[in-house]
Amino acid sequence: MENIGQLKAFLSVPKDIVITSHRNPDGDAIGSSLALYLYLNKLGHTVRVIFPSEYPDFVAWLPEAEKITIYDIEPDLSEDYVKRADIIFCLDYNSLDRIDKLGELIGSLPSTTLAMIDHHLYPDINAEYQISEPSASSTSELIYDFIEQLGDIQMLDTDIAECIFTGILTDTGSFKYSTTPKLFRIVANLLELGVDDVKLQDLIFNSQKEKHLRLLGHCLKNRMEILPEFSTGIIWLTRNDYETFDIQRGDTEGIVNFLLKLKAVKIAAFITEQPTIVKLSLRSKGDISVQEIAKKHFKGGGHKNASGGSSFGSLKGTINKLKSILPQYKEMISA
After folding, report:
1. Residue 232: which domain range?
2. What is the dihedral angle through the alpha carbons of 169, 174, 175, 176, rounded to the nearest 10 degrees?
3. Which of 50, 64, 304, 316 is deepest in the core (most CB within 10 A)?
């Protein structure tokens, strides 16, 4: 952040602060938000975290998670917090449309200061303060950098470290993606602050309900299709599947990654039929950019190897559309 000194001066006296992150928040969204929340609280600010929608159970144990305000549940309270804020932090998203009505509200404010900290491509938020680093593993890594740039790294404690570690762990797929020597040095520092990585891995990945394994089995047995000519695997779920397995927010987290366990699969697609929309989650190996596919064909975006999009067509029509565009990328897939 070029004007970090200016922001440090701005934060040198108590402020009303709102921290926001994207709809359907994942481990990085909640980890980075709560880490920043805990840090700013230490500085004496009045801080609220607002998400457009609820967060999944596997991160509900994080410190102060119960204090998060959900816009879908408490819109009036959320609006009051936003309108009173001296500064609003936008974490883990690059456009206000990622936070739906909350974004419309923030965009309509005449003079509130915005600060964006994010690691997605093509930032589209007019923020006075901005850290945009697509090469970073996660927004949680950038929160660590942000606190360090402010000269307050000594203020990190175990709670803040656990939040940052959770965001890094989940967004790197347990340190399989977007890793760097710098990242592992940060993780080593977090462990020295008291993070119990075995305990956190257990809380995040080994706390599932029986229905999760039954859903995974259903996906792999009945909803998986492999397209060997395009090194692509597809898993899809219908609205009836959602009812049958009582699928709630976060229950499908990570299913798309099972396709990448196949040596022959370079592109993985997880396509789900929602009440009013069809959503796509895309993953890839190596130099294949699913971000390009998501942005060009499904009004989405994200990262080179992990992106998402949506379609207002039918589930079958969306699957067929994906299949129809794969020949355009055959050269990239075959490289």
Report:
1. 210-334
2. -140
3. 50
Helix 75-84 to helix 100-108 angle (10° resolution) is 30
Residues 216, 123 share a domain: no
pLDDT confidence of 301, banded at 50, 70, 90?
confident
Q: Looking at the structure, do residues 272 and 125 belong to the same domain, yes or no?
A: no
Helix (H) or strand (E) holding 241: helix 239-244
Tokens encoding 138: 């996660």
Output the pLDDT for position 122: 85
Q: Which helix (H) or strand (E) holds 197?
A: helix 197-205
C-alpha dist (Å) from residue 258 to 144, 210, 252, 296: 30, 18, 11, 25
Cα–Cα distance measured from residue 53 to residue 24, given in angstroms and rounded to the nearest whole number: 6
Domain of 120, CATH number, reads 3.90.1640.10
Instruction: Check if the beta carbon of residue 91 is closer than 8 Å to that of residue 32.
Output: yes
Q: Which ranges of 245-281 would DSSP assign to H, the alpha helix?
A: none
pLDDT tens digits for 44-76? 999 999 999 999 888 999 999 999 999 999 999
Do 171 and 289 share a structural domain?
Answer: no
Residue length, the chain? 335
- Measured in whole angstroms, the distance separating CA 200 from the mean position of its chain's CA atoms is 18
Between CA 274 and CA 252 the distance in angstroms is: 13
What is the chain's mean pLDDT, rounded? 95
pTM as predicted: 0.89
Residue type, 314: S
Q: What is the pLDDT of residue 69?
A: 98
Query: Are residues 42 and 113 in contact, defined by beta-carbon separation less than 8 angstroms?
Result: no
Separation between Cα atoms, residue 90 and residue 9, nearest integer Å: 19
Q: Are residues 103 and 220 in the same domain?
A: no
